[in-house]
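Quick one - inputs below.
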Amino acid sequence: MSLVNLAAVCSHLQNASKARLGLTSIPVSKLHVALMLGLQKQGFISSVTLGGPAPPKPVLLQKPPKYRGTPEEREAKNLAEQLREARKLERRQKKGYLLNARQLEKVAWGRAPEWSYKEIVPANPGQRRLWVGLKYWKNEPVLNKMNLVSKPTRRIWVNSDDLAKITRGRESAFVKGLTRTGECMFVTTDKGIMEARECVERKLGGMVLCRVI
Amino acid sequence: MSVCRPARCLFAKTSAAALPKPSSQCRAFTTTPSRPARRRPHYPSVKAADMAYLKEQAATKYPDYAPADEALLSQKYTPSQLAAIQAAEATIDPRDLTLQGKKRNDPWKLPYEDDLSHVDGVIDHAEKLHGPPGRSKRASAREASEAEREAALALIVNEQLAKMYPDGFPANPTPEEEYRKEEAIHTAIQQAYLDPRTSFWSDDAAAWNSLADPRHSAIMQELPRIDSKVVQATATFEGQEVVDERQQRLLHQLGWPQDTNLRQRGFLHKAIVQHFVSNYTRLGKIASFYVLTIAGNQNGLLGVGEGKAVDSEEAMAASISNAYKNMKPIPRYENRTIFGDIEKKLGAVRVQLQARPPGFGVRTNHLIFEIARLAGIKDLAARVPRSRNKMNVVKATWEALTAQKLPEDIARARGKKLVDVRKVYYGGSIG
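Output:
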């Protein structure tokens, strides 16, 4: 869990929002994927897509395949399957197997789609990027600020009591309260990365990652 | 408790003669204060005889209705209303009334006890204006025909004359009385012509009568008069108010009516920064006066205006008019504080404003205090940690207050549903 990379991601998203970019990419890691899904759940970003060095085609963003389940579950399952399938593909390619177009599509989407995309996740993990769609409303970015709370050299763990105080706007465990309008804080817990208020609801503690406004 | 007390208890003689009685004195192993020997009830017990007396008193004070009373009541009320009155009176125990009921004798008591038929113009709400049941007033009234007009005129003239001569015309009038009578008839006829009932007719009597109700008139009603010398004195003082040309110009520029009384509407302004500035030119220094004024209505409107002129009065006037022209709405949470913490940087000044709970007050520096006062913010904390340049502090605060993001907007931007639970609890009376 590299917080150095996460810090870079935070700054990058801030800068991309200030530059009014519609789509930007960040390096792929399990932490980044989970955090981006958390951001998407909170409505800060519009889409999270696994792709290559070139941005995925807009059609992918406009019309995602129909899956059952809640949008979050769907997105998580989709990404997890994409990763798994990509790894499988990699292994098969190492062994010298060749895949046909249909199989490639299956690798990309976790199942055979009704329609075909040319876009696929590169076999080389170093070439994979996570493409994040940024949101704007009334000419203002939805994600304005994103800062690390835990630092690479000083990580901060909080329990649910601390989080309860923090979400009520009080300082606890050397973490300032969430006093600004619409401020969110993400915490990595045993049950995954989630927002501080959700942690309080589920009585979970964990390591504080970042705060987002 | 003294230290020696437990020891004294331990070494005390145990013989029954030495101990006066098993009183609370001996319970000394604990720190709880001892109770008096006999416990008294908190309330004096009421004896049965007194209760009977009370009942008698209550019965004499609030007797049941006699048959004569009931007959009188039945004239005024319908049987169902009468039944309701009796049922209501039966639920109240007269004993409770005598024990707990209190007659008001404070200066603010209502001038009547239970006569709700009389409507007081000052205390009571105005009576609601109901048209006749069924059809609307406009639909039922139509233009009167010649004959109907004649009939209506006669009726209204008679009404008016009956008001002027309640006892009828004098039997043997003197010439002066005769003249007055003719005058009265003349006036009554004139008034009858002005009455809308002469021009319009309705088969529905209630609708026709409601035309004469002055509350249907488009002309503003006269308010109940208050015969107070103080009120009259202030009224004449206000009437003689000097017309301010500058204010008139400002009102014209704002597009507000000329008779707007800014003070009465809660508008205030205050010059909070003023100093001399000088322009160094080839010909020498040109000194001028700089004023920064804030204006607000103490209810969510705030403007900041600057003025600069060689003459201090001109500068002041310019800054005031600029402040009024720059007024912007300021979002306030529950009309008392801000929505969450805000930070604003302007030049080297950084202003941090923090929302606070009700009753906290405005605990800020004097500039932000004035701003909060004119904007109508009651609970606020603020820090100005870096530079404290007065002009920039005022401007930064104003910009921070006006550029607040509302929770509804944030929720909308994030695609979230926001529910204000304050509107669910407390009957929605908050906010």
